[in-house]
Amino acid sequence: MQHLRVIAFDADDTLWHNESIFERVHERYRELLSRYHDAATVDRTLFATEMRNLELYGYGVKGFTLSAIETAIALTDGKISAEEIQILIALGRDMLAHPVELLDGVAETLDLLSGTHRLLLITKGDLRDQQRKLDKSGLAAHFAHVEIVAEKDAATYAALFSRHAIDPREFLMVGNSLKSDIIPVLDLGGHGAHVPYHLTWGAEKVDRMPDAPGRFVQIESVREIPSLLGL
Predict the structure, then answer these.
(1) Rounded to whole angstroms, how far apart are CA atoms 109 and 9?
(2) pTM
C-alpha cells in the first residue's frame, strides 16, 4: 500500500468512541422497560423501529431517541408516563453533549500522516452532531476535506472520488465498519483497512469478509497505518 496518496478515515468508533455511549443508554432503556418486557424483546423491537425509521430520520442520536420513544409507547401499550418519556429525552440530550474520547493512537497517527498524505474524514450521521464531535476532537486541522454524508455506499464514494479528483487505486479507507467503510470502497477498486471496534451496531454487521487480495487488511489499531504505508 506504499503507493497510496489519499487516506480517508471514518469517525465514530474509528477516531473516537461512539457505540459504547449508545450501549450504556441501551442498558438504561432496558431497565426502564423491564417491568413490561424482557431485554431481548426490547432490543429486538427497538432495532426494528430504528430500521423502519432510518430512511426518514437518518443516522445519529436524534433518530435513535425518536425511535426509542416510539418503541417505548408501543411496548407499554401507551402506559409509559410523561416522566419516563422525559427520561428518554434527557438520555438523548446527554448523548449529544457527551465528551469526545479519542481512541488510542489516533492523535499521534493523524499528526504523522497529515505530513505525508492527503487526509479526508468521511462520516455519516447528523450534520450538527458530527461537526460538534469533530470540533471538540481537536483533529479537524489534519483533514484536507470533511464529508458528512447521509449514507456510505458505492454511489456516495464514487461521487466523492469524482468531486475531489481521487483515483480509487490511490485511495485507502480506514474504518470500523466492513459494510460502510470497506466493502463499497473495495467494490470501486480502492483499498480498505478494517479496524474493528469491540461493539458493532446490528445495522453495520455483514456475513462475509471482503475478498480483495492486496487491497484489504484487518488491523488492531490505527497505529499500524503508517507501517502499512512504509513510513
Answers:
(1) 11
(2) 0.93
